[in-house]
Amino acid sequence: MVKLAYFARKIAGLLVTVFLVLTFNFYLFRILPGNPFTLLFRGAGLSAEAMRGLNAQFGLDKPLWLQYLIYLRNTASGSLGISYQTRAPVLGLVIPSVINTLILLSVASAISMVAGILIGVFAAWRRGTKIDVSASAITLVLYSMPTFWLGLVLMFAGVIYFRLPVSGMSTITGAAGGIFAQLIDLMRHMILPLLTLVLGLTGQYVLVMKGALLDVFTEDYMITARAKGISNRKLLWDHGLRNAVLPMMTLVALNVGLSIGGAVQTETVFSWPGMGLLIYRAILARDYPVLQGAFLIVTIAVIFANFVADMLYPLLDPRVT
Amino acid sequence: MTLLVLVLTPTTAQLTSVHAQGTTFTVGWGAAVMDTLNPTALTLYDGGAYNIIHAIYDTLVRSDTSGSPIPDLATSWTYKDPTTVDFQLVQNATWHDGQPFTSDDVVFTVNLFLTHKEFPLMRTYVQTIKSVQAIDKYTVEIQTTKPDATFMDYRLFGMVILPRHIWEAVPNYTSYTNDNPVGTGPFKFVKWGGQNTYVLYDANANYFYGKPHIDHLVLRYFTSYNALALAIQSGEIDYAGPLFTPALVPTLTSASGVQVITRPDPRYYYFCFNQYAQGSGNPLLRDKAVRIALSHAIDNEELAKVVWAGFAVPQNTVIPVVLGHWVNPNTPKYDFDLKKAAQMLDDAGYKPGSDGIRVSSKGVRMTLKIEVPSNYAEEYRAAQVIAGWWKQIGIDATPMITDVGTLADEAVAWKHDTFIWVWSAGATLDPDWFLSMFPSSESQPAPNPGLSDSGFNNATYDALYQQQITTTDPAKREATVWQMQDILHQEAVYVALYDPLAVQAIRSDRFTGLPGGTLPPLNQFATNNLLLSVMPISAPVETTTATTTTGAPSGMSTETLTVIVVVVIAIIVIAAVAMTRRKPQPKGQ
User: How far is A306 from chain B (nearest CA, A)?
Assistant: First the structure.
């Protein structure tokens, strides 16, 4: 009974959050200067009459509060509208982009998490030695590099020296062969953006892991465990890491949720057709329905990821209820 | 481990752009939005979508390399009177699904565009059409509301013909995505990867003017020109465009097998003065003497050299130099002379104040913003140079970058002082577009915005504008157009800056056939000029023979690469294991 009420309260809270974010996004995009059609107006061929027609067609000439209510009604009935640019349903645009982004970012997140944890643990264990200092310094330097620049440098090296494909997700004329060949093709296209992302993302995991673990080392139970004669390996992994993983969990949940939004800079450099590129293009064109739809999906993803993390905390640490 | 080796070995499919059956011509197009397959949704004349659509669909007439109309779906045409044209249509053309093309399709298309005012681009192309009728199965007659000088060399270039048997059944044109476009054009749609990815075509073997010399066409979207330059350098694509910046030219010219081609584009950058009387820009710009003086303080030849490294042609009037005889060669030029400019401002009563900045007799300071849209890095440089010149003659000029959307809003409401921007025509060499932002009908206040960003208002110009657009006699029209350029010069409406070159590149070791050996002055994909003439240099090669790219830069061999990767991974694994094995004291106490 108590559990049910607890769940219900949680869900209700989530729905309120989503609603607030929806509203905020709606007004945020319309505050952006520039109407989607005045931007096109300066191109040859779009007459003032056509521009007014487009405004009317997409309901942009109605007062703002009316547009908002129409938007709420449509979203509640499941329709995310159509894109101003392609006239295709927004959901049909967003879903493939989300999938493409997930392919790239889930692998990148997994690799950088594992690498980040390993390096963080190693750096904490060997704190103060040259290895720790250099490992921490290198990851931090990579973390603070502009992603765009890093991507371009890697692209240059990759294309010239390793003959990797420049951009996109797959060879257009089709890789000869069956599923396996297509998989190889996908991986070839993924190497450079993956590397760019991993090099950039690892830094934060290293920092958090190292900090959390060092914190745990100062606890009394670590001294007790050592006095009991527990081996170094057990000390580190069973006693140290177990307790340090909670802050990591938070960071992981946050990143998983946000990664749905795509890595805009990486996707732009490598023309990877994911959410980042979709949002970037939609902002340039002031394509409100696509922006609203994309941000709605990102919001839901972040909220859901945090919700899952919330549910998982008690499993990791029984002291949390 | 085998996986790693496989992944890192470039397959032969990557090394050449050879498809299993026949040749594939891969075009990379930079930063031009490919957003729709539906011609009725087209908004941008020169976006990637326009190119995609024009490879599939045809028009009645298309442009040759000098901007004049040549037969496309219409084999010949005769003017019965200045407002009535008869078109003889091609008789053996078929749609990509096999249905025959007849005059019914033309009549249907024109009526569709006439009755739907919300089709952005297509509406413009039928704006002067009054009616259309089929005389017989292969003859149509089109009547215009008045004589239209731009009908044959601009409007018909863009008006694609749609198949009646497909489009009459469409329930809602606004949301129709046209996922399987069917046209009469030289290339058949095969598939696309979605918005802003790529489009794959097969050559149309039944194309009524003969099958193209290539078997497959790929149009690929690139967000960044850096990636585009790398792609053509490595051989991943065969053609790259449309507008490389001068900074990337050395990369392109140094790559072997790549030929760089340039031509002036039908567009020009200009400096705009806001002279609108009801606007909120600096009111001193409403004084013609000030504008003329400032025009003497801009050296567009120097700017073309400095900002575009010579990749731009300085221009004196509002007609881009590539439009040839439409440019008035006799329009005088405000020569660059800072002393003269300063003298003129003194004479007009704008003396420098105590801080050196000129002030009008009513106390208005000559403080001017020079705005530049955010996507034009070169023009920001130009704005800085201009501000430097103007500071020398007592003007407080501030160059600033403004977001494109914001600047568009400002321009429409005349809130700016001055800015640098571009006007571009795209797939036509008709001068009308470049004259159309100056009639007073375009300087309407919001909510009925017009094209004018200068606020220019002149009855003589208005009359001449109406005259040139209805004068079909080229010599008379040219005289009118020349006169209009003189008026704009006398009133110092704009300072025309320069016409940048379009820089593109082709893999000349694989393909040849550029029309005329060079790049024609129009968007050659929309005009089909390139697509119909390009041909591979050697016969198609099967994928089983490994042909390495002749222009491939020296790099590591696959074996070395594999060894390196294996070694790196081994080091990581060993280090991880070693870390947990040794027994030093934990230092984190």
Answer: 31
| Domain harbouring A229, CATH code | 1.10.3720.10
B87, β-bridge pairs: B77, B140
The 10s digit of each residue's pLDDT in A165-185 is: 887 777 766 655 677 777 888
pLDDT in tens, B258-297: 999 887 788 899 999 999 988 899 999 999 999 999 999 9
Copy the structure tokens of residue B61.
């007439």
d(CA B59, CA B80): 21
Strand-pairing partners, residue B236, are none
CB contacts under 8 A, A 229-248 vs B, are 232-233, 235-236
DSSP string, B164-209: HHHHTT-S-STT---SS---SSSEEEEEE-STTSEEEEEE-TT-TT
Q: Which residues form the domain of A290?
A: 93-316
End-to-end CA separation in angstroms for chain B = 42
Residue A299: inside a domain: yes
Does residue A213 belong to the interface with chain B, where contact is any CB pair within 8 Å? yes
Give residue-wise pLDDT tens across range A53-86.
777 878 888 888 888 898 888 888 888 888 887 7
The pTM of this model reads: 0.81
Length of chain B: 589
Cis link prior to B447 (omega < 30° from 0)? yes
A 270-299 residues inside an 8 A Cβ radius of B: 270-271, 273, 277-278, 281, 284-286
Residue-wise pLDDT for B460-476, tens only, equals: 999 999 999 999 888 99
Is A179 within a domain? yes
Of A34, A56, A152, which is closest to B404 when you measure between CB atoms? A34
Closest CB to B197: pick one of A41, A168, A233. Answer: A168
What's the structural domain count of chain A? Answer: 1
Inter-CA distances, A3 with A307, A316, A318, B302, B368, Å? 15, 18, 16, 76, 67
**Inter-residue contact B117 to A40 (CB < 8 Å):** no
**ipTM of the shown complex:** 0.78
d(CA B548, CA B277): 66
* Spatial CB neighbours of B178, under 8 Å, sequence gap ≥ 6: B36, B37, B38, B39
- Provide the H-helix boundaries in A218-287: 220-227, 232-234, 242-259, 264-270, 275-285
Length reported for chain A: 321
CA B362 – CA B364 distance, rounded (Å): 6
Q: Which residues of B touch A214 (CB under 8 A)?
A: 588
Burial A213-227 (b: 16+ CB within 10 A, else e): bbebbeeeebeebbe
**What is the Cα–Cα distance from B212 to B22, expressed in whole angstroms?**
12
Residue A50 lies in a domain: no
Question: Is A5 part of any domain?
Answer: no
